[in-house]
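Input for the complex:
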Amino acid sequence: MVGIVLVSHSTGLAAGAAELVAQIAHGVRVVPAGGTDDGRLGTSTERIWAAIAAANTGDGVLLIPDLGSSVLTALTLLADLDPQDGGKQVVLADAPFIEGAVAAGVAASGGFDLAAVAMAAQEARDVRKL
Amino acid sequence: MSASSEARQFADEAAERTVVLPKHLHARPAGQVAQAAARCADVTIDLAAGGRRANARSVLAVMALGAVTGSEVQVTAVGPGAEAAAEEICRILLTPETDS
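Predicted:
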């Protein structure tokens, strides 16, 4: 199953979003990576690496960032991945944080592959709430 | 199950059901609907309510139907196994809320 990592500035936001996704998409593997190493607002490369490792069962990992430095940190981290050694197994989603996470979670729990899960997250941009 | 074995013989099988919701079609049941629809890979399932239509595989589109308790939801399934798929979606829609 594709794993999902939620990258946020806030430990609480990432954890809460992961909790919500797990509630809606039963059985999904979703791991929060929020805040700095000492729990302040910010992003932590180490936390994101650890979350990717925890989320990866061999079918790949989708990173969903909230905004700003979450995106930049995730991009930097992706640039450091060796494309010959699992680098293609980690994809960054260009998607709204909560909606994208929920849509990706449902797709991942349904057994779709990494490309399809990333597509589900990105399609969330076009779904209206009302 | 005779319904599903029959379904395999007819690729253009279609099923239609209408249910009255005993609960809001909010995030959790929408997720259950989308997961069930994803399991029926060969069946196209649509939900319609209040003049809106949603692909059952899109959890966000299903939520955006805005279907509240007492709404009629029409379930349309097309493809091999459509009957069983429609039954499963209706079962989820008709399951009463167990918690908030």
